[in-house]
Design brief:
This protein has 268 residues and is an alpha/beta fold. The chain has nine helices and seven strands; from the N terminus they run βαβαβαβαβαβαααβα. It has a seven-stranded parallel sheet with strand order 3-2-1-4-5-6-7, sandwiched between helices. The chain is globular and about 50 Å long.
Length: 268
């Protein structure tokens, strides 16, 4: 990262920060000079990641509103400020046709994917950002803009997160910028069932010829959180290897939807 990013000495809080996209974001924020607070469910993973980054952390579920308040308090207490919030923690459950979705599982998806980001931003706003300003980046998904097999709950909740991002951007300006990043298929554990069986076939269906890496998304998140994007708010930055433009690319069938269908059969 370059000094123009303006993150030196600033404090960032990243959810779902011990693996995948969240870990890559936390590492790149730290490399840019930020002080980082991390959270995830597993206490040992949180301890190890916080130690690696020279930051702090607390284990817990983002579905727990008290945990979110405690994270903000921890960050402000340890670093004296809270400049950046990255809402990365998410669930892709319940998986399957919407006609089969259990109402409780549906509510849990929205609690984690939509309500938790709002609650965390509310806490950060009250504790620091209302007076001092800051930046929020929500990790959404390329799939929020269209439909796909068996991911109706995930896609719908992420579409709500996308709208929440824009709503907050308007309400919190000019003090706080709020943006989102929408990844395509990325090499994470959550998406392993899509990319692992025959990755070459999946990658061949994308204009840029490969699936994403967590670092691809992290670079976009850090840019949006930084002073380099100081005149950007309410935006959704697509990081998808060309998924949305594949219809103009001579790539044959779209293997990702095939994997989502077969993944449902395997899980069933």
């Amino acid at each position: 990262m370059t000094s123009s990013y303006g993150l030196q000495g600033r404090a960032a809080l990243v959810t779902g920060a011990t693996r995948g996209i969240g870990l890559a974001v936390a590492r790149q924020l730290a490399a840019a000079g930020a002080l980082v607070c991390v959270t995830a469910r597993d206490a040992e993973d949180v301890r190890r990641t916080a130690a690696e980054l020279g930051g702090v952390g607390a284990a817990g579920s983002v579905a727990d509103a008290e945990h979110l308040r405690a994270l903000v308090e921890l960050t402000v207490r340890e670093f004296g400020r809270l400049d950046v919030v990255v809402n990365n923690a998410a669930t892709n459950q319940p998986y399957g046709p919407l006609m089969d979705v259990d109402p409780q599982a549906w509510r849990e998806a929205f609690t984690i994917n939509v309500e938790a980001p709002l609650r965390l931003v509310q806490s950060a706003w009250r504790a620091w950002m209302r007076q001092h300003g800051g930046a929020v980046v929500n990790v959404c998904t390329e799939g929020a803009a269209h439909v796909g097999p068996h991911v109706g709950a995930y896609g719908t909740s992420k579409a709500a997160l996308l709208h929440l991002t824009r709503q907050l951007a308007g309400e919190l300006a000019p003090k706080v910028r709020v943006n989102s990043v929408s990844p395509g298929l990325v090499r994470t554990e959550m998406a392993r069932f899509v990319w692992e069986p025959g990755e070459e076939q999946v990658a061949a269906g994308l204009p840029l010829g490969r699936i994403g890496e967590p670092e691809d998304v992290a670079r976009a998140v850090v840019w949006l959180a930084s002073d380099a994007a100081e005149w950007v708010t309410g935006a959704d930055l697509l990081v998808d290897g060309g998924t949305r433009v594949r219809a103009a690319h001579d790539s044959g069938t779209y293997a990702i939807h095939d994997r989502l269908r077969t993944g449902f059969l395997r899980r069933g």
